[in-house]
Structures are given as C-alpha cells and as structure tokens.
C-alpha cells in the first residue's frame, strides 16, 4: 500500500499540500457527478484537565473486567510516538494488590521502504503521525469512553482531538474443560479484554494502534494499516508491482511495513528484570523410545542482544523481586506474531533487541533524542554492554503486495505480538473456585 508522503520523506512540511490534493480530488469528483455517503459524525471534543505531576485522574485508565481482573495504567501523548502507556499493572482475582508489569510501552518506529528503492519513510519520526491523530465517533468505541487528547505541535486551531478509545470486548473462550470426574459438568469461561486504541493518519494511510489487556494477564500489541491505496503510486514499467484495476495497465507499488515496539518492563516494581532465552533440540528416536526426544536449555542473557526467532526458541523477562504463591519467579514470555523480516537495513535484520536503558533511546532508527555522536539506530546500541535495566524492542514486518480487494477503502492488515504471563499467578487467574484445590500434582478426592 504505497503512502502519499512529501518528497524526501523526512519531514511533515508537505502535509498541507497532501491535504490540498485530496480536497482538489474530492471537488473534481463532485464536479463529475460522483456522490458519497456521509460518515458518522465524530464526537465533540471534551477538553481534558491539565495533567498533574505523576498520573492525574484524567490520565488514568482503570478497568475491572467482568471476569474479576483489573488493569490500571497512565497514559500520555508523545509528539512523535503518539500514545504512550506507563505504570501498567495487572490485578487478577485472588491477588490482594496490583502486580506491576511495565514501566512504559510505546511504538518505536514504523519504517516503510518501497520495493523500487525510490522512497523510504520513517512514519513516526519523519512524518506527522502523532500530529494527525484522528477524531473517533461513538460508534467506533462501543460501550466505552473516548478521551480527549491535547496533541503536541498539532493544529493550534484545534489542539484537542477526541481520539483515544478505551472499551471492553469479548474474545471468545478463555477456557473450556469437560470434567472427567463429573461427566455432567463442563467448565467454560468467555474471555474479556480491555481495548485501548488510537487512529493516526500518515498520507493516505490510517494506522490503528491498539493495545489489548486480557483478563488472563496477556497483553497484545497490534498496528493495523487501513485507509487508501495512494492513487499516485502506480507504475506499470518497474516490474515490481501488482495490477490493480482493469487489465494490466496500472500496477500498485509494493512496499514493506516494519513496525517496532519499545517495552520497558518493571515487573513487581523493579526495573532490574532479567532476560532468558530458551532453545529446544529434537532428536530422532533411539533405543527403546517410541518417539523423538526434546531437550530444552536456558541461556541467561546478561549482555545486550540482537535476537532472531527460530523453531523452538523463545524468550522471557523475569522479575528480580517477585514470586507467585507457589514460590516461582514471575515472568512474561515474548510471543511473536507472523512477521516478514526485512533484510534491507541493518536495524530491521533482527526480530528483537534487548538494550540497556538509555533515556534518549526512544526510536529504533532515525532517533532524534540523543546527542551528537550517539548511534541513531537500535542495532548500533547492541555493543556488549551488561544489562541492569533491559529494554525490549520487538520488530514485526509485513511485505505488502497490494490486491484488488485493497480498494476502496482498504481492509485493515494487522501486525503485532503478545507478552504472556508465565508463573505470574500460581494457577490460571480465571480458575473457578471449585477447581482451586487442583494445584500441582493432585489426585481425585474420595
């Protein structure tokens, strides 16, 4: 899905020109007799009170889900990254206090290189991603609340945008278990999520940035690209595009979306978390064994890491201080989603990075916050430094070769990943009371 960007792709100065072009196109269509249906009216902005130091009520998100889990967090809006969530905690039923999970969570970059090599964009740091926060209508946030955001460096005539939705959604079965000891009994639970999202426009694209906080402690981070295929990015001669429209005259330019997230874990209130890598090897059957064998090994990640997923590999971030009621260290496992790793740039050649915390390292590349001489991309930050306060960077790629169904409007294509609790609670946090005694190696009661 080619985007419409200003020439050069490194500043937002062409935003007005892009909007003017869109307006001119709309006027031309109307002059030709084209009519369109009006969309739903956006909710009228409500100005939020100024943020107090820390996290005032206006910048607090707190939701107790119907299954008993409570999520709490602060939010703020960054002039480049957009929505930033901080001090994220999780309190399932049975826990007498919140369990802190993250110091902060934010987007770390959206890198968009074109297949023909003519354009390459950094949509967070080189475009007006944050400034073009979109108004949301009530129908887009069913049963929830739309919060007003004061956009830094936004349109001074309209600084407040009704653009942050918090709501709850069902996700289907959280579990289902037919009880073999009581054949007439089946346990099942429909899962509930807290959904927090914004929509930001870049050129013809609209990015839906959503954070799903599940009642079982899982957090899922997704970016969905929708909007329009740019009418300017068609070229039938470069041999790289896909034919869109009648015959084989117009070819939409193919490109990639490489989305980075930056996660600063603070499990149980400590930033001194530990990172561990697990690898399993599978061997062919031998001797009297019926099947292959698998052996899993743990490697403690003590220095900065550029990591790649492969079969039977995974990572977890482990609390330095907290243990569950079984005495096991709390941790969160990194759960990847589908990805197409982009080999064209050094910083996109790995699936994840772990770096030592540096307050200026906020974007995976084109990072503007550090002083001169400081490396500008996450791959250069991995230089063997010991980890005392690790920061995790996740890279999820998508190669978009457009199709006829991408017009018009373009269906959302999603990319993202999850972090899942591992030993955060002693049992499934949604366990029904009747099964709470079945912890560990239990035997049927007489």
Characterise the protein shown here.
This protein has 446 residues and is mostly beta strands. The chain is 5% helix and 42% strand. It is built from 2 helices and 21 strands. The chain has helices at residues 15-31, 378-381, and strands spanning 60-64, 70-78, 82-91, 99-113, 120-122, 145-150, 160-178, 186-202, 205-214, 219-227, 242-243, 251-252, 255-265, 274-283, 293-301, 305-307, 313-323, 329-336, 352-356, 390-400, 410-422. Strands 6-7-8-9-10-21-18-17-14-15 form a 10-stranded antiparallel β-sheet, with no helix packed on it. Strands 1, 2, 3, 4, 5, 13, 16, 19 and 20 form a 9-stranded antiparallel β-sheet that branches. It has a two-stranded antiparallel ribbon with strand order 11-12. A hairpin with a 6-residue loop joins strand 4 (99-113) and strand 5. The longest helix has 17 residues, at 15-31. Residues 1-53 have low confidence and may be disordered.
Give a short summary of the structure:
The protein has 446 residues and is mostly beta strands. Helix content is 5%, strand content 42%.
Key words describing this protein structure:
446 residues; mainly beta; 2 helices; 9-stranded antiparallel sheet; 10-stranded antiparallel sheet; 42% strand
Topology:
Layout: H1 15-31, E1 60-64, E2 70-78, E3 82-91, E4 99-113, E5 120-122, E6 145-150, E7 160-178, E8 186-202, E9 205-214, E10 219-227, E11 242-243, E12 251-252, E13 255-265, E14 274-283, E15 293-301, E16 305-307, E17 313-323, E18 329-336, E19 352-356, H2 378-381, E20 390-400, E21 410-422
Antiparallel strand pairs: 1-2, 2-3, 3-4, 4-5, 4-13, 6-7, 7-8, 8-9, 9-10, 10-21, 11-12, 13-20, 14-15, 14-17, 16-19, 17-18, 18-21, 19-20
């Amino acid at each position: 899905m080619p985007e419409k960007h200003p020439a050069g792709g490194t500043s937002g100065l062409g935003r007005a020109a892009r909007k003017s072009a869109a307006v001119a196109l709309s006027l031309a269509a109307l002059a030709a007799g084209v009519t369109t249906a009006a969309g739903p009216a956006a909710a009228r902005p409500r100005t939020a009170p100024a943020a107090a130091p820390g996290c005032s009520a206006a910048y607090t998100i707190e939701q107790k889900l119907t299954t008993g889990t409570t999520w709490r967090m602060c939010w703020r809006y960054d002039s480049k990254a957009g929505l930033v969530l901080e001090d994220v905690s999780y309190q399932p039923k049975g826990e007498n206090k919140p369990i802190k999970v993250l110091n902060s969570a934010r987007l770390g970059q959206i890198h968009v290189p074109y297949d023909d090599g003519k354009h390459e964009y950094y949509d967070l740091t080189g475009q007006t991603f944050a400034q073009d926060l979109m108004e949301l209508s009530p129908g887009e946030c069913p049963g929830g609340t739309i919060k007003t955001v004061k956009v830094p460096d936004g349109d001074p005539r309209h600084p407040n945008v009704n653009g942050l939705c918090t709501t709850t959604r069902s996700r289907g079965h959280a579990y289902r278990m037919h009880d073999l000891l009581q054949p007439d009994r089946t346990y099942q639970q429909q899962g509930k999520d807290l959904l927090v999202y914004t929509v930001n426009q870049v050129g013809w694209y609209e990015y839906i940035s959503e954070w799903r906080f599940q009642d079982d402690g899982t957090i899922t981070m997704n970016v969905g690209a929708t909007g329009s295929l740019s009418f300017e990015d068609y070229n039938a001669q470069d041999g790289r595009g896909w034919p869109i429209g009648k015959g084989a005259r117009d070819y939409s330019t193919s490109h990639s979306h490489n989305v980075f997230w930056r996660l600063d874990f603070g499990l149980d209130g400590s930033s001194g978390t530990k990172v561990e890598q697990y690898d399993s090897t599978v061997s062919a059957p031998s001797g009297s064994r019926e099947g292959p064998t698998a052996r899993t090994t743990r490697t403690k990640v003590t220095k900065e890491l550029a990591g790649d997923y492969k079969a039977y590999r995974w990572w977890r971030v482990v609390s330095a201080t907290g243990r569950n009621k079984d005495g096991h260290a709390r941790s969160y496992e990194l759960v990847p989603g589908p990805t197409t790793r982009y080999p064209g740039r050094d910083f996109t050649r790995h699936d994840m990075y772990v770096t030592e915390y540096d307050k200026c390292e906020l974007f995976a590349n084109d990072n503007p916050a550090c002083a001169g001489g400081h490396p500008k991309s996450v791959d250069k930050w991995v230089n063997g430094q010991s980890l005392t306060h690790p920061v995790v960077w996740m890279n999820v790629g998508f190669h978009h070769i457009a199709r006829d169904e991408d017009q018009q409007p373009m269906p959302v294509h999603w990319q993202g990943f999850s972090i899942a609790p591992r030993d955060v609670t002693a049992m499934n946090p949604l366990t029904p009371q009747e099964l709470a005694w079945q912890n560990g190696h239990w035997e049927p009661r007489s």
